[in-house]
Specification:
This protein is an all-alpha fold and 288 residues long. It is built from 15 helices and no strands. The protein has one domain. Helix 2 runs antiparallel to helix 7, helix 8 packs parallel to helix 10 and helix 10 crosses helix 13. The radius of gyration is 19 Å and the shape is globular.
Length: 288
């Protein structure tokens, strides 16, 4: 991996927890409950929060944009999400949730010059992210920017992580991996235990069939462990993903990217320090 692509990967690792807190933070569940969502599990609010920038998207559109979820699982929550609350109301509540959770997590950092600088740098990078062929990134980029720096930081982190996610899906499709095969192959390289991926809603039979298809291509053994060829393919997918999302960081420049990484360090630690984010995750952060 080149130094540039290593930095691209590092920035993703720093920003991802700052975005993902929304799906686990108590204030977010409180805001979701106030809208009428069931908060006994995280999925009703997850699908609402993440899909709302797309408008009243249906099952097919959300399944395509999210890629890794079973369409049956998506259909359980979408478009029912929009019968509970309109996307515009969800987006307003999402911003309130981010405001509350960041005030809880970042505490004294709120309103500081350092956070303002980090937000400005992250916004510059996010505004350089091309939305072509990237539905979730483009939808979030089209939203108006908030005034408060901590909300700007979250929105920038969200645009950049969705920009990467959209690009990653393109890399998976280029490699000939369907949604189930994408997960099976990722589990095969040890990104996370197989049971971690159960939350994506695929049946055991679908998982087994995906594994058999990959085995026929020589990408996994029959127990699901990646072969040498399978590991090489996953490494190539990650490299392609890094390349497709390098432009925002090239636009920001190496010095300002380094400065942003330094500024984000304490916020990253604060996010991880909440204990809200799962230790095992389907993104494989730290594993690839």
């Amino acid at each position: 991996m080149t130094d540039e692509l290593g930095r691209v990967r590092q920035m993703w690792h720093l920003l991802e927890p700052l975005h993902a807190l929304l799906y686990y933070a108590p204030p977010a569940f409180e805001e979701a409950a106030a809208l009428g969502y069931d908060t006994d599990e995280r999925w009703p609010s997850y699908f609402a929060w993440r899909a709302a920038p797309l408008g009243e998207a249906g099952t097919a559109q959300v399944s395509s944009a999210f890629h890794s979820f079973s369409p049956r699982m998506v259909a359980r929550y979408v478009p029912a999400a929009w019968r509970t609350a309109a996307p515009g109301d969800v987006l307003a509540a999402r911003l309130r949730a981010v405001d509350r959770m960041y005030r809880d997590v970042l505490t004294d950092a709120i309103g500081t010059p350092a956070l303002g600088e980090a937000a400005a740098l992250a916004r510059r990078a996010a505004e350089a992210a091309d939305g072509a062929g990237r539905p979730l990134a483009a939808a979030n980029a089209a939203l108006p920017w908030a005034d408060e720096p901590h909300l700007v930081l979250w929105q920038a982190a969200t645009i950049l992580r969705e920009h990467r996610g959209d690009g990653h899906i393109a890399a998976l499709l280029t490699a000939g991996l369907d949604p189930v095969e994408s997960l099976v192959s990722f589990a095969g390289v040890g990104a996370a235990p197989v049971e971690t991926f159960a939350g994506r809603g695929w049946s055991e039979a679908e998982w087994r069939a995906g594994r058999e298809r990959l085995a026929a291509r020589g990408l996994v053994d029959h127990d699901g462990t990646a072969t040498t060829e399978g590991r090489a393919l996953r490494a190539e997918i990650e490299r392609r993903t890094d390349e497709t999302v390098a432009a925002p960081w090239r636009a920001l420049g190496p010095d300002d990217t380094t400065r942003l990484s330094e500024l984000l360090g304490p916020y990253w630690l604060a996010a991880l320090g909440t204990g809200l984010l799962p230790a095992q995750n389907t993104l494989g952060i730290g594993k690839v």
